[in-house]
Specification:
This protein has 482 residues and is of the alpha+beta class. 49% of the residues lie in helices and 7% in strands. The two termini are 41 Å apart.
């Protein structure tokens, strides 16, 4: 197995990542990596199909239709065709629209960024399922390595990491599928750095899904520009300190993170020898919305179910959580379906009453229920002293942002408590293929026919043997438009 960039310390970080993505021999994709990739692909398609019906995805599709585009790739869940960048944009918005795509420790929502970009290019080029998996795995790895080097500083500076980094994973994967060389991939990375961005204040709105879609579009477009010889700085990640305030000082890392606030060496550790896909680091979201309170949701459902409680018995519910959980889900009121997913008081109340937190629980109709709002008034959220140490990026140095405690005080004087650490679907309680099949079926049911759902799951299960990605795409649009 050949990985030219693995130990060459004379090369820039940008060049080593580009060489890794472009020049790694196809034999890197062993059965274990392929199986891990297929699980993430299945889960992301589930989120994408369900998300295709969300308002943000519908508006994105309407806008793209108004712009027009060469019919190169398919909009999942709808069947219309447009250009690769436009299809990647809408499918990226769909993948993240419902906050139901996966989350990889120390990196973020990697699959929801990388898959839509890989899919658009693979469909246009009529590539095989194995080529799609290869590109996805390499784009996934580049995304994760860049994230490991930039987080948590990039978050603390107010950037949404998926928006800044996601396009790079897409760009190098697209360059590989186009058959470009490492210099073209470096150019694509440089173009993306000036193209894709997003600020955290837009989290809790359609803007968060836009960040993902925009990164996908930027990654594909950058690869197309690079294919046509567009020239930018070839070493965009690192800056130069030859002139303190010169333009070359401000590469990606210094610009987004602030000078020196990064760990570029983490982008290269064991490059080509270890893959994030081979690690048990990805969290499947079995509850849409903010990832951080997932363990508390499971704990609330378990506590209510075990004691057969009803909301009329409740005097007070107290959720104790980490500062990171509260920072990621900070809204006090569920003003709309976006902020509801990041409102801990609402999430705890709906988990108590419905004993379930799925897509229906974040619908506009459910959010407006007065019974839920009455219970919300009895929910308090605090960060206790012993959980304050959990400030930091999840998965690093033992930090677990999901650790929480629930206390329910009842009107009859009873006090019930539940400690929560890890949700089902997290690395400590990983999802099975069957779990993901059930999630896919639930997400796809409003859009696809039962036979399509069965065939799509079976096709993804044997994706490495698929001759043409187009055969899979045809299963992911309503039968009436096939």
């Amino acid at each position: 197995m050949r990985h030219p960039a693995k130990k060459d310390i004379q090369l820039s970080v940008t060049e080593q990542l580009a060489r890794f993505a472009i020049e790694s021999d196809a034999s890197f994709l062993n059965a274990s990596l392929a199986d891990s990739a297929k699980m993430k692909i299945l889960d992301t398609f589930a989120a994408m199909i369900a998300g295709s019906q969300a308002p943000s995805a519908r508006i994105s599709l309407k806008t793209i239709d108004e712009i027009g585009g060469v019919p190169q790739a398919t909009v999942i869940g709808w069947g219309s065709k447009t250009s690769m960048p436009n299809a990647g944009f809408v499918n990226g918005v769909s993948a993240h629209a419902l906050e139901y795509d996966d989350n990889t420790a120390g990196a973020g929502h990697v699959s929801g960024c990388v898959l839509p970009g890989c899919l658009a290019v693979a469909e246009h080029l009529d590539l095989s399922g194995r080529k799609l998996i290869e590109a996805f795995a390499l784009g996934f790895e580049v995304f994760c390595r860049m994230a490991h080097g930039l987080r948590p500083f990039i978050i603390d500076r107010g950037w949404h990491p998926q928006a800044v980094i996601g396009g790079h994973g897409v760009a190098v994967a697209a360059c590989r599928m186009f058959g470009l060389d490492q210099m073209a991939a470096r150019m694509a990375m440089g173009i993306v750095t000036s193209s894709a961005t997003g600020v955290r204040k837009n989290v809790g709105s359609m803007g968060k899904a836009f960040h993902v879609g925009n990164g996908v579009r930027a990654g594909i477009f950058a690869a197309l520009l690079a294919r046509n010889q567009f020239q930018v700085d070839p070493d965009i990640i690192e800056g130069s300190d030859e002139v303190a305030d010169g333009h070359e000082r401000f590469g990606l890392a210094d610009t987004y993170n602030g000078i020196g606030n990064y760990r570029l060496e983490r982008m290269l550790e064991n490059l080509g020898s270890t893959f994030e896909l081979s690690k048990n680091t990805t969290m499947v979201r079995l509850h849409p919305g903010s990832s951080a309170p997932a363990a508390a949701i499971d704990g609330m459902i378990d506590l209510v179910t075990a004691n057969d409680l009803n909301d009329g018995e409740v005097e007070e519910i107290c959720l104790e959580c980490t500062p990171q959980c509260l920072a990621i889900a900070p809204y006090r009121e569920p003003i709309d379906e976006y902020k509801a997913k990041f409102c801990l008081r609402y999430t705890m109340a709906v988990a108590f009453i419905d004993r379930k937190v799925g897509l229906e629980q974040y619908s506009q109709a459910r959010i407006g229920d007065e019974r839920l709002h009455r219970l919300m008034q009895r929910v308090t959220v605090t960060v206790p002293e012993d959980l304050k140490r959990h400030k930091g990026q999840w998965g690093e140095n033992g930090v677990n942002w999901g650790e929480a405690r629930i206390t329910i005080k009842l009107t009859d004087g009873r006090v019930l408590q539940q400690a929560c650490s890890h949700a089902k679907g997290w690395p400590e309680r990983p999802s099975s293929w069957q779990d993901l099949c059930e999630k896919f079926a639930d997400c796809a049911a409003p859009v696809l026919e039962p036979g399509q759902i069965r065939d799509a799951i079976a096709t993804i299960g044997k994706l490495e043997d698929l001759r043409s990605v187009r055969d899979l795409v045809s299963l992911l649009v309503p039968a009436r438009v096939r």
